[in-house]
Amino acid sequence: MILRVGLVQTRTPAAHAEALAHVAPLVRQAAADGARLIVTPEGTNILQKDREKLLPVLTSAEDDPVVTGLRALARELAIWLDIGSALVRREDGKAANRQLLIAPDGAVAATYDKLHMFDVDLPTGETARESATYEPGDRAVVVDAAGSRLGLTICYDMRFPALYRALALAGANVITLPAAFTRPTGEAHWETLIRARAIETGSFILAAAQGGFHEDGRGTWGRSTIVAPWGEILGKLDHDEPGVLVADLDLTASDRARAAIPNLKNARPFTGP
Predict the structure, then answer these.
(1) Whole-model pTM?
(2) Cβ-based neighbour number of residue 247 at 10 Å
(3) Which of 204, 102, 114 is nearest to 154 (CA)?
(4) φ/ψ of residue 141, rounded to 5
(5) Active-site residue flag, 42
């Protein structure tokens, strides 16, 4: 089966209305190019690194104007739309970094809250403490979508291979990787890690990224990329500007890659050192 997918690369503003106006035309462009499954980046609905400014404007996913607008757009275009993540308020009042898969009828088919929080001190002096703002998720998610078995991950998750292996063992042959990667880590590791996750799981990786310098002062790497199960790059935006990337996935390639290198089956238990 051939599945045409689209990745949307954004430079999301620091307010909801502007964010929807920014992303919606790019989604339309991907759909016009024939994409049946479209993935947007992490933080599609708003990017604001100042938590004192961010937290007061967050709403539930049900009330978020960008989520609502994109659900209506998915229904209008009759597409599967993966909102790579929306920064939303949870039912308990805490914040979540939540991926939402929207079906062609506009319904929410699945959600996934980012498991791994980006709490780091980079050699450049840049620091991040996602756990100060967001409550991490506690479950992995695989869902049927557009003829594929779709596994959901977000950004920093890509550094935890055990999650990707679990998704592959649960049948995922396509894995989303929406991101807002920093520029230093993106330049050093982005493409290498995407290809590694594809090769070791025998899965397609759909890495939709934020790119450029944002209103809130952050810089993100861009370079949205689609990688096949054998590790070859099917498409890449070699820049950090907003844009659209479309590629055709031969979903049988996942079975072929896993048959050629059956590492998912060959793993053995072992005792620790």
Answers:
(1) 0.96
(2) 20
(3) 114
(4) -135, 130
(5) yes
